[in-house]
Amino acid sequence: MTDDQPVFVPAVPYDEATEQGFLSRFDPGTRTLPVGFQVDPRFKPLDIEIVLEKDVAVVLRDGVTMYIDVLRPAGTEKVPVIVAWSPYGKSRGHAPMYVQLFQLLGMDTGMVSGLMKFEGPDPAFWCAHGYAVCNPDPRGSFNSEGDIRVWSRQEGEDYHDLIEWLGVQDWCNGKVAGSGNSYLAISQWFAAAEKPPHLAAIAPWEGMSDIYRDLVLRGGIPDFPFPHRVAQSFVGKNRREDLVAEGERHPLLDGLWESKIPDFESITVPAYIVASYSNNIHTPGTFRGWRRISSTQKWLRIHNTMEWPDYYEEANQNDLLRFFDRYLKGVENDWEETPRVRYALLDLEGGDRINLPAREFPPEDVSVVKYHLEAATHSLSVEAPAEGARAFYDAESGQGLVSFTVRFDAPVEFVGYPKVRLWVEADGSDDMDLFVLLQKLDSGGRPLEQINVPNRGPQMEAVTAQGAAILKYKGSNGRLRASMRRLDDALSTDEIPVHSFDRVEKLVPGEIACVDIDMFPIGLAIHAGEQLRLVVSGHHLLGGVMPGTDNVQPDNHGRHVIHTGGRHASYLQLPVRAVGTA
């Protein structure tokens, strides 16, 4: 086995008798779901008659057979088809675990039919508007042959083959698109990079685009709890790829991880991309995909909630419908007049603004301002301190941190990409796992945070108090292992440092090293008297990404020293849209 080969372990065993989704048993054939059909009384009834082609065999280029379900409007009119690609099961959209998730988030199951794949397009909506929906079980999952590959160019090739198979079916008009959250978004980057001729558009709705940098070893720091958890969803009869074992065996960004980065420059189809500032799994990757794909017809919408409720909101489904109507049906609906960027400006006090138009992100009227760290006063200032100073914390303590604050006398907006440059020293160690968090504070110094889902009651407050970071926005964050500080000069810009992660450069005693840390993009409004606080810590302050998921465990020892001023002018760089004088 060569060094860049994937690692496989047995998949989660598939027991058909335990599957609880509608028609989850393997049962090839065609049937019709009548008007008024419901998978369960808690779900929306169908408004139209839908033809369900179940467990249809599709043979991939290497002879492996995968199985798909197709749901399409009854009748003879040829329709475009939307693919929902993930290994999470093609007939489990109303399984109890997902019903419980909707209830936790405060989402009404009556807004969907339950016929959709988890995180995927709802056939009740799309078939009623003249589209088919394809729910595949990709290679290795459930009854499909082969081994499960996770977020890779191999998966892109398989997705390509399915698109080409769908595009020539007698019920299809030859136009195929992708849609969905998370895995269903990530897979679209890989599929589009393969340039299948029948692919007419993509709509990735929050999805990673670099599995090393976004998930398994973000900042060069092993972060295995969520990859371990998601692996429990990889059900099949053979083997599954093991991201945790790959992270342990491949701590540097080598050929294996390169295969999990799509060829962005090859993506040229029209793209409707949805992002948020708050998704601790998907935010960096979604914005990276937006920046790097070559499509000349691409639109970015940045919302202020969480991907699941945003995806099924009626206004957003109708917005996506206009996009798909334009590029899958050729409808002249002036879609091109839609602003190329619509962004959210978070207030975190009930006054968020959404769908603000711009030609690009960050908007053209944004300028970059450096706020220098001052260790002596624990403050941030646009003036670099003339004298050097130090701040430090116990790196082994779960409470170890230092913070730096600035108060604004007039309103100001921050829209774009923050970054931090720190001059650091490891006292008692040869490495440092650094975590940074940018918080908005009210005039009295209280951190302002915002739950991202409809359920904002005591239960959700408790769930998100120490973790479940994907459900509550607490500020822009970043992380970096100091020995991985080498920048990739080809990919880095002044606003967005990108690390190569191809070498380890340990610190030596007494060395003061310069590290650049990229942070999540922001759209944040500050009112007069409010503050920003930059926290530098040896642990991740946001906790695990999902309820029940453990936090990342840093490998820190000794004491971390942050140098400021003089020859070691550490700073926070922010994208500023001034609406007054800061």
Short descriptors:
alpha+beta, 582 residues, 12 helices, nine-stranded antiparallel beta sheet, eleven-stranded mixed beta sheet
In terms of quaternary structure, the protein is single chain
The low-confidence runs, each spanning 5 or more residues with pLDDT under 50, are none
Proportion of helical residues: 10-25%
Structural classification:
alpha+beta
3D architecture notes:
The protein is 18% helix and 30% strand. The protein is built from 12 helices and 30 strands. It has an 11-stranded mixed sheet with strand order 3-4-5-7-6-8-9-12-13-14-15, with helices on both faces. Strands 16, 17, 18, 20, 21, 26, 27, 29 and 30 form a 9-stranded antiparallel sheet that branches. It is globular and about 75 Å long.
Quick summary of this structure?
This protein has 582 residues and is of the alpha+beta class. Helices cover 18% and strands 30% of the residues. It is built from twelve helices and 30 strands.
Describe the secondary-structure layout.
Layout: E1 8-10, E2 12-13, E3 29-33, E4 50-59, E5 65-73, E6 79-83, H1 96-105, H2 123-128, E7 132-137, H3 153-167, E8 172-181, H4 183-193, E9 199-205, H5 211-216, H6 225-230, E10 235-236, E11 239-241, H7 243-249, H8 255-258, E12 271-276, H9 283-292, E13 298-303, H10 307-312, H11 314-328, E14 341-345, E15 353-358, E16 367-374, E17 379-381, E18 389-394, E19 401-407, E20 412-416, E21 419-427, E22 433-441, E23 450-451, H12 458-463, E24 472-473, E25 476-481, E26 513-518, E27 522-526, E28 531-537, E29 559-564, E30 571-578
Parallel strand pairs: 2-10, 6-7, 6-8, 8-9, 9-12, 12-13, 13-14
Antiparallel strand pairs: 1-11, 3-4, 4-5, 5-7, 14-15, 16-17, 16-30, 18-29, 19-28, 20-27, 20-30, 21-26, 21-29, 21-30, 22-25, 22-28, 23-24
Helix pairs in contact: 3-4
